[in-house]
Design goal:
It comes from Tupaia chinensis. Belongs to the class I-like SAM-binding methyltransferase superfamily. NNMT/PNMT/TEMT family. One of its GO terms (molecular function) is N-methyltransferase activity. This is Indolethylamine N-methyltransferase. The protein is of the alpha/beta class. It has 9 helices and 10 strands. The strands form 2 sheets. Strands 4-3-2-5-6-10-9 form a 7-stranded mixed beta sheet, with helices on both faces. A 3-stranded mixed beta sheet has the order 1-8-7. It is globular and about 45 Å long. 43% of the residues are buried. The mean pLDDT is 95.
Amino acid sequence: MEGKLCVGEDYEKEFDPSVYVRTYYPFDAGNTAENEILKFSLENLFHTFSAGGVGGDILIDIGTGPTIYQLLSACEAFREIIATDYAEQNLREVQRWLRKEPGAHDWSPVVQYVCELEGDRSKWQEKEARLRRTVTRLLKCDVTKPHPLGPAQVPPADCVLSLLALESACPDVDAYRAAIRGLVSLLKPGGHLVTLAVLHCQQYLVGPKKFFCLDLEKETVEKAVQEAGCQVLTCNHCTLNYSETYTTNDGICFVVGRKGPAI
């Protein structure tokens, strides 16, 4: 991958959300690497948020991007979801789907897959309607800041979710650890942090543009969650990799942590 590497503020200027979702979330009939990674994510989220699992009043999704797949199981377990992202164009893309605007990405195959996990594929339209009701706010976030949501007034959350976001935002491991601490600061005592990280990836393509990715190890992710004051409840690691056309990586990991009580 030659050419300029987009980092930091470049992301908001250069990132094309529609190209990103078409590239990494096609979920078509082909048994692609991207499909398998998405299934891994959806299945872990289903088990995390299913009855008797993680739930509550408020979930904050940090680094929502232009996607809604990560919220499909969560909308059954939380009264309110707050979606956030660094890039305005990503928030606009999510808003287009929420408002059923023409040209919004069609997530229905993914919604149907989640409904099948839940036991009834035919209820996908009800699922979409529920998610549209449950997402109440779209906010700007910056995980490189001590207060990732800036001046926005947000009550302490029962759960903070962040999938495949911190790796693009954090320039080094120290910044990643600080970002995890910032996410945990948004939680109530006893609240849950749910995160998915791509491992050993240094850059990825969105169309012709090349974006930075922090090279993480599974142990680094686990340790960052622990050092931020959470007990690691789940750490599911798999060896699935994205198509080499778009990026190179060596596995992904899904982690659930629980914040300790206030001292």
